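User: Thanks for the earlier help. One more: Glycosyl hydrolase BNR repeat-containing protein. Can you show the sequence and predicted structure together?

Assistant: Of course, both are below.
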Amino acid sequence: MDNLPQNYTVMSRSAILLSLCVVLTALNCQRQTPNAPVTPTEVVANFPNIRIDSSAGLFATGPCEPSIAISPVDSNIVVAGAILDRVYYSSNGGITWKKKTLTSPFGVYGDPVLLADAKGDFYYAHLSDPSGRSGGDPTWLDRIVVQKSTDNGVNWSPGTYAGLHHPKDQDKHWLAVDPRDNSIVMTWTEFDKYDSREPKDKSRILFARSSDGGKTWGNEASLSQLEGDCLDDDNTTEGAVPAIGPNGEIYVAWAYANKIYFDRSLDAGKTWLATDKVVAEQPGGWTFDIPGIFRANGLPITATDLSSGPNRGTIYVNWCDQRHGSNDTDVWLAKSTDGGNTWSAPLRVNNDGAGNHQFFTWLAVDPVTGYLYVVFYDRRNHEDDKTDVYLAYSKDGGKTFVNAKISQSPFLPTKDVFFGDYNHLSVYNGRVRPIWTRLQDGKLSVWTALVRLK
């Protein structure tokens, strides 16, 4: 357990448990789904919850869509972000935080993505708004901007960018780092014209790489053989999250037309597969309705095992869908042990009975231990729209998962509030820092939990 300052207040409580009390309780999964965990268990535990920020802004201005990164050089250093332009940094493992506003000559317009490289430098990728007029100007969303901090999140460079292809729009980006040479890769969706209903306007997955610490970006490539529409919906190509293999392999999965697609490069992004592979079906598509949530998605997350453990090199893809009906959203995982040539059948990560919603999932693999962690919103404990946050973890390469409720109290969302499009998670050597959005006392807020697992 991470040590807290004496009398430190968490969620308005005057004291918290400083020793972790874990009770493992076997649960019978009421629905017999294919490849369900063999020995489902749930952890009943107290994990200190830390409020990082809150604001009265409730739609597109309040803090949400958070991202977080732990430094591999010093895991006490943690940096996070939230829309539109918020930066948070901590030097004590996330117990206390400082806040500042990110600025750039290219504008800062949300979709924050945080990454820490092998040297302990941090990167913050986001959408652009050079004119500051957002949707009222043609330069809005014209590139993906990446800013860098070399002092643990205190100060940031003006930024560089990739994907400037005027008049096309750039959105839904993510980053990954190759720890061998510290190169940074980025994937995202390019729209010929965002929200266009014209059949000629298409969307595609793009890639770029930086070999100089984010100073310049090159090796741009279009990855998706099948192009989607521009409606930001099931038939749009979205959700590209890159992952790096042990020998520098680059892996990417994304969602399109009720399927999860996959591509890879073995030469630093110079060449890619001639034909995209299918990881799994995604029945119902990647967009769906969740009561009380303005919009929800089940976009995939790709991650790899870089540890020296028995599952080194395994590729994992995590997503949500409603294959069992609109009142039953589940979290799924597929894996490949042969570089993405073949994939396991989807395994259900949440181990509750039928008829509940689990959504906004994110996956991370500890690069030291190889353990898998999946964070998601969960409604198994409530008959209304009250929502908890759960963390599922696996010590056996995704064969079985333990589910742990990590939020200390539920919250009640409303469709009048924009919760963003994702939560996030960062893990290093047993230190786990999930980050999520909740509605608290009429304000949007972002939170983390102090979790440590060896």
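User: Great, one quick takeaway?

Assistant: Residues 4-40 have pLDDT under 50 and may be disordered.
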